[in-house]
Specification:
alpha/beta, Aspartate Aminotransferase, domain 2, Aspartate Aminotransferase, domain 1, seven-stranded mixed sheet, four-stranded antiparallel sheet, 14% strand, binds 4'-deoxy-4'-aminopyridoxal-5'-phosphate
């Protein structure tokens, strides 16, 4: 019932992709005068006068070793945000197709849909922040191309039930995009090992969270080779800069340090959660599988302003469905967390 070719936009199926100088010749040579670069160099280093590897072979090989996923199942984007946008451009016909999101969730699924003139259908999560499978199923029609699932979810911080995700994967004939941006902070297993069971699965991960490299802009999509081929067909030729590729490669050598930071952040999250829950102004701290907490304070706008006056910026999520009265707070450093606690303690709700 899953037919990738049928899901694809006609113009993308027929597209002749851009072929770059680096696509056409990848070997060693004495003289490279094929790409209209500045042959003399640059104010930085000689290295940056050349276009980067359009397919990021070295970075993908390193990610492949760490994740245990072959490189041909990996696509790299300028942040996950590029991986999100390209799915709309490849699969969704503007003004005709639709996608389903499960709010409250990450805002870019909807913004990117609007940029691409794609209808967004909303299956709001249940009160326990789990998928409403009945509502979801009722929203699907023949023009539904993508279902966005975020687990652990932003801003609710919880993981979605694995069985529910499997039900969607087994029954929806379009693409199921599972955003695992926060998976490293979770007790639950990633779905990247299940790619061979689900030809309609795209898993998104990012270097912006656990890897601590939000400034580099490197997002990862894991999927079947056929889906990765489509990503490569529609992407800009040199979407990941030379600087990003070099720095990511360096960072990927140190998975040990990242695992240690994850361990610390999870410990700090649990401590911060307990400390916040003990404050009179705090009504509820929701369980978190991520590196942030959803915290119910009642008058969230006033709490937000109070913290801002103290020079502390958190995210006011009180206008978001199911998050009334809530702030979303990232786990900071020990000092930042202490300042936050001190300031909330002084706040009279
Ligand atoms: N997905 C989720 C769920 C996020 O919360 C975020 C960032 N807030 C992103 C994706 C974007 O990640 P990136 O920095 O890789 O674009």
């Amino acid at each position: 019932m899953f037919n990738l070719d049928k899901l694809l936009r006609d113009n993308i199926r027929e597209l002749v992709p851009y072929s770059s100088a680096r696509d056409e010749f990848q070997g060693e040579a004495k003289v490279f005068i094929d790409a209209n670069e500045n042959s003399l160099g640059s104010p930085l280093t000689k290295w940056y006068n050349r276009y980067p590897d359009p397919h990021q072979h070295a970075v993908k090989a390193a990610i492949s070793r760490i994740k245990g996923i072959p490189p041909q199942h990996i696509f790299l984007g300028n942040g996950s945000d590029e991986c999100i946008d390209l799915l709309y451009r490849a699969f969704c016909v503007p003004g005709k197709d639709n996608v389903i999101i499960n709010p409250p969730t990450y805002g870019m699924y909807e913004v990117s849909a609007h940029i691409n003139d794609i209808e967004v259908r909303r299956a709001v999560l249940l009160d326990d922040f789990q998928l409403d499978l009945v509502h979801l199923e009722n929203l699907v029609d023949e023009h539904t191309k993508l279902i966005w699932i975020c687990s652990p979810n932003n801003p609710t911080a919880n993981s979605l039930n694995r069985q529910d995700i499997e039900i969607v994967l087994n029954n929806f004939p379009g693409l199921v995009v599972l955003d695992e941006a926060y998976i490293n902070f979770s007790r639950h297993k990633s779905f990247i090992q299940e790619l061979s069971d689900y030809p309609n699965l795209v898993v998104l991960q990012t270097m912006s969270k656990a890897w601590g490299l939000a400034g580099l802009r490197l997002g990862m999509a894991f999927a079947s080779e056929a889906i990765i081929d489509i990503y490569n067909k529609v992407k800009a030729p040199y979407n990941i800069s030379q600087a990003t590729q070099e720095l990511a490669l360096k960072a990927l050598e140190d998975v040990g340090q990242v695992n240690e930071m994850i361990r610390q952040l999870v410990t700090m999250r649990e401590q911060l959660s307990r400390d916040l829950a003990a404050l009179p102004a705090v009504q509820r701290v929701y369980p978190s599988d991520a590196n942030f907490l959803l915290v119910k304070v009642g008058n969230a706008r006033a709490a937000y302003q109070h913290l801002l006056d103290a020079g502390i910026v958190v995210r006011d999520r009180s206008k978001v469905e199911l998050c009334e009265g809530c702030l979303r707070i990232t786990v900071g450093t020990e000092r930042e967390n202490a300042e936050l606690l001190k300031s909330i303690k002084e706040w009279k709700a």
